[in-house]
Amino acid sequence: MNALVPLPVLLPLFATGLSLAAGIRLKRFQRFISVAVLTAVVVISVVLMIAADDGPLSVHLGDFAPPLGITLVADRLSGLMLTVSSLVTLCVLVYSLGQGMADKDDETPLAVFHPAYLILVAGIACTFLAGDLMNLFVGFEIMLVSSFVLLTLGGTGPRIRAGSTYVIISLLSSMIFLVAIAITYAATGTVNFAQLAERFDDLSLGVTTLVQAMLLTVFGIKAAVFPVAAWVPDSYPTAPAPVTAVFAGLLTKVGVYCMLRTETLLFPGNRLGNLLLVVALASMIIGILGAVAQTDLKRLLSFTLISHIGYMVFGIGLADRAGIGGAIVYVVHHITVQTTLFLVAGLIERRGGTTELTRLGGLARSAPLLSLLFFVPAMNIAGIPPFSGFIGKLALMRAGVDNGSVLAWVLVGGSTLTSLLTLYVVVKVWNLAFWRSEPPGQAAEGTVMESQEDDADDADDDAADEGGPAVTPQDDQGIPVRPGGGQVVATSITGKAVTTTKRPPRTMLAATAATVVLGLSYTVLAGPLAAYTDRSAQELLTRTPYIEEVLRP
């Protein structure tokens, strides 16, 4: 069974080579390879999750023992994260295939999408399975390289700017990460997690606190925790819908996973627990207030992302079995629901030509299926019973009450307020985009939506031909518009102009519906899920099974 551990990393990397070799000449083969490999990764991840319930699994690549070799470890937490992430990435891939075929995007940028996406999946799996800090860093860098390609597909101005911001922030966190790894190795002579768990106890409090603070900073940036989350609302909304969905839903949880792993395995005792609780409260409140102020759906969802990361940090800050278990439940819930909401945002953009809520309306009547696909995850993320969002929030609040400290009680109150404001936000979206009558400025079916760069260039060229100054046409709200009417929006994966449709492609609808069903399954399987996460939390806090599995002869 241990031989299966490296496959979630190796299979996507192998498929990347095949996908690059196929290129646009064999685009059907390229799609088949991507879907087949991710399906195989789903099956392997489920097997690993079930097997890890009997104890951690490990493999030393090249048969080199720590600290020389590369160690990959699958325990309950990593097995669960692998399973959820592989299911979500498969659904997003199918969604992207439907969008690409509907837009007839067959040129080079879309051909690059598949290899970049497979590399991203491999990087995510590498971080979940990494048994040492160095390979955790390698997983981060694999994700960074592929993320920049995916964020900038098509080379449009907004995407290049957003991708540049993302890369700068990621490189800064990578530098901090490398320094933390260097300090750790200099102080202990190893970067293997199991060995570090034993050797950190012998170091001075100052050294361990410094390393802990640096790692929390790195993982906080990855997880989009306040106050290092300002890059999220500017980076995510410009990317293609499937890219935004997997980034917002999954990549931020990689940072949360790393916080769970290191805080329990390397830094027991919860020395910085109060700091984490303060950060959690700030993320909740400031994030949701930012969402309240937004009128663009993608930016609104980006702010709710920041806010709900606070719930997970809340559980990590409590650092007890109930808190860690609640945090894991909420991570699983949020990966799926946040991804679903961004996929729905892509469908809304395709139907109405924009995600600006002031320009949308009447979707409940004109697109009832789309309305249902939004309503279910919206109620889920707001924490309405009996959805998994309610179960996760209730578990965290009960853990806070059981903790009994003043700060924990403040977090319970902050969690309640954040949940109510989240409900207000999703109701606002529902009222503006779905319930009210269709506004006069909404794009009709068949409207060709062009990119901002195309329209700006066209307008500037026309003005130059007439001898006047270059001016981009705008409406009364300062939003660029096409000379023939309609808001300027680019919705295709490669940034091409697309045509709004009354009925979104069935493949996109099916993939979105699959993520909705996956989110609902957490409610149906709430008992087994809660039991599994509770055992996972116990295993994380005990530490012994992980250490013995990695260091056994």
TrEMBL record:
The chain crosses the membrane at residues 6-25, 32-52, 77-98, 110-130, 136-154, 166-187, 207-232, 239-260, 272-293, 300-318, 324-348, 369-387, 407-427, 509-531. Residues 451-465 have a biased composition (Acidic residues). It is found in: Cell membrane; Membrane. Keywords: Cell membrane, Membrane, Transmembrane, Transmembrane helix. InterPro entries: CPA3_Na-H_Antiporter_D (IPR050586), NADH_UbQ_OxRdtase (IPR003918), ND/Mrp_TM (IPR001750). Pfam families: Proton_antipo_M. Residues 130-418 form the NADH:quinone oxidoreductase/Mrp antiporter transmembrane domain. One of its GO terms (molecular function) is NADH dehydrogenase (ubiquinone) activity. Signal peptide: none annotated. Residues 442-485 are annotated as: Disordered. One of its GO terms (cellular component) is plasma membrane. One of its GO terms (biological process) is ATP synthesis coupled electron transport. It is a multi-pass membrane protein. PANTHER family: NA(+)_H(+) ANTIPORTER SUBUNIT D1 (PTHR42703:SF1), NADH DEHYDROGENASE (PTHR42703). Belongs to the CPA3 antiporters (TC 2.A.63) subunit D family. This is Na+/H+ antiporter subunit D. It comes from Streptomyces odorifer.
